[in-house]
Design goal:
Number of strands: 19
Strand content: 15-25%
Radius of gyration: 25 Å
Number of helices: 15
Distance between the termini: 59 Å
Length: 517
């Protein structure tokens, strides 16, 4: 593919090379590669489930050992709130109060989000402020019809002359209302983190944000800092990063040729949350808790969530200690056959990795090197929730192109729906991934892993979008907890659904876990 001089300059300004962009174009020509799922990970067969006593032991271990580690919470928070308010935007564009009443309109639409929204609108944390703005801007507000009032109210929530919530980063949308204040998702993450990750009175968090939003988060923190630090007896150290432009990917047209905008320039798009492996790789910490910005709960509902976070942390600490002990032994050499067999058995039972039949024929040195390679990787413990219809990737045993089988978090779009056997396995799935991870980023010598080395580039995904009214194909990098962590050592642990409370639509704020009303 030949690029002109202007193209080359544009590519280099992004920190990319022409060769890298040509590789991306090759992926479009290749198409999506479907994964080969062998079986769904289920309880006691890929997913661990622990008794109350075992959970308490993990919690105790975490509380006892956490001061030995540099801890940080990593929160992807670059998303805008636009999608959260999609149903309200549709309402504003379609509803005409002069032609129908509000109830009549709602009965004519199958939009359940909109129906739930209007059923509980007065319980939303930003309702009173939106109502005040609506009345200030419309002195005759009380004389208007019910439909007109609600249309004005919704506009007062969404747009710039009102609360402008649709243009906020999602993390700064008011999520919860308390007697003395209203809290954003950002604030709730800080409060939650103080409950299990504070070490010597300090809690550390890292937010990945969109360019232009960092100052908004910093301003919000200054507003809430005093009362939050007083209430939690915790000092917060907050850092931010942006998605690196060099992780953007080129878009193509339907013929897989570079898509150009109206000025004739190449069009690049953000490469999806998988691009954040770059940001995670730059984190200086031993243990990293990963959680999405919109998955928070009211303070009074934190009990279960905090205990299970500590449990996952304790599980990782115990597992890491055993792996490091084995790696030290392998590194020292001269291990007995029984010790090598013990390590191989651990890998099979704890890490759910197959050891080939040929292993028994390996020399002692070959066994040592083979086991070392299997153990010496970044480690993650992932919470898994029973599938009750929520969206999210699922836990599966997956075979790669070399024939190796490993535990992976797989999205439905990665599975070949035309393959009956693959669909059967998918339908047998019992759990899904709520993005509840604890990660270990250093090896047994205390050195940081280069996370780029553990990405499965074949798990990139082609999505169909539009630009300027024209169709295009976009390349999503391997997802952060999917292909970007494909070659990590992975453990799945069951956690209760009470720990998963995402806000995908505005109506989700009316659920019990988010509403004090």
């Amino acid at each position: 593919m030949g690029f002109n001089e202007t193209d080359i300059l544009q590519i280099e300004e992004k920190g990319l090379t022409a060769r890298e962009v040509e590789h991306q174009l090759d992926i479009f020509k290749r198409g999506n590669i479907k994964v080969d799922i062998i079986q769904a990970a289920t309880l006691d067969d890929g997913i661990f489930s622990y008794s109350t006593g075992e959970r308490k032991d993990f919690i105790k271990l975490f509380e006892h050992r956490k001061e030995d580690f540099e801890l940080i919470k990593f929160v992807p928070a670059s998303g805008a709130a636009t999608r959260m308010f999609k149903s309200l935007h549709n309402f504003v564009s379609k509803y005409n109060p002069e032609k129908s009443g509000l109830r009549e309109y709602l009965d004519s639409t199958d939009d359940e989000v909109l129906q739930h929204f209007f059923e509980g609108v007065d319980h939303l944390p930003f309702y009173e402020e939106a109502l005040r703005i609506a009345k200030d801007r419309h002195p005759d507000f009380e004389e208007k019809s019910n439909g007109e009032k609600h249309l004005i109210l919704v506009k007062s929530m969404l747009y710039e002359d009102g609360l402008n919530l649709s243009n906020y980063p999602k993390g700064l949308v008011p999520f919860h209302k308390y007697s003395s204040r209203i809290a954003t998702a950002f604030e709730e993450h800080l409060y939650e983190t103080s409950r299990y990750m504070a070490v010597k009175g300090v809690a550390k968090l890292h937010f990945t944000v969109a360019k232009g939003d960092k100052e908004k988060f910093e301003k919000e923190f200054e507003v809430i800092k005093q009362h939050l630090e007083k209430d939690t007896n915790t000092r917060f150290e907050i850092s931010y990063s942006y998605q690196d432009p060099k992780t953007d990917t080129i878009a193509v047209d339907e013929d897989n040729k570079p898509f150009r905008d109206e000025e004739g320039n190449l069009f690049f798009r953000p490469g999806g949350h998988g691009a954040l492996i770059e940001n995670l790789n730059n984190i200086e910490a031993d243990l990293v808790f990963v959680k999405n910005i919109d998955n928070v709960v009211l303070e009074q509902n934190l009990g279960d969530l905090v205990d299970y976070k500590k449990m996952l942390g304790g599980k990782l600490i115990r597992l890491q200690a055993q792996i490091f002990e084995y790696l030290n032994q392998l590194d020292a050499g001269n291990n007995s056959e029984s010790k090598l067999d013990e390590i191989a058995d651990f890998i099979k039972k704890e890490l759910k990795k197959e050891i080939p039949d040929a292993f028994i024929k390996f020399t002692g040195e070959e066994k040592t090197q083979y086991l070392y390679r299997l153990l010496d990787k970044p480690l993650r413990v992932c919470g898994m929730v029973k599938n009750e219809g929520q969206p999210g990737g699922g836990p599966f045993l997956v075979k790669d192109e070399t024939g190796a089988v490993s535990l992976q978090i797989i999205e439905g779009a990665q599975i070949d729906k035309d393959n009956i056997e693959q669909v059967k396995i998918l339908n047998n799935s019992t759990h899904f991934n709520p993005v509840d991870l604890v990660c270990s980023l250093k090896n047994f010598k205390g050195e940081k892993y280069d996370l780029h080395k553990y990405v499965d580039e074949t798990m990139s995904f082609i999505a169909y979008k539009t630009k300027d009214g024209k169709p295009l194909k976009a390349l999503e990098r391997p997802g952060l907890w999917n292909g970007a962590m494909a070659d990590w050592n992975t453990i799945f642990v069951e956690v209760p659904v009470t720990t998963f409370n995402p806000v995908k639509t505005v109506a989700d704020l009316l659920k019990e876990s988010h509403s004090n009303g």
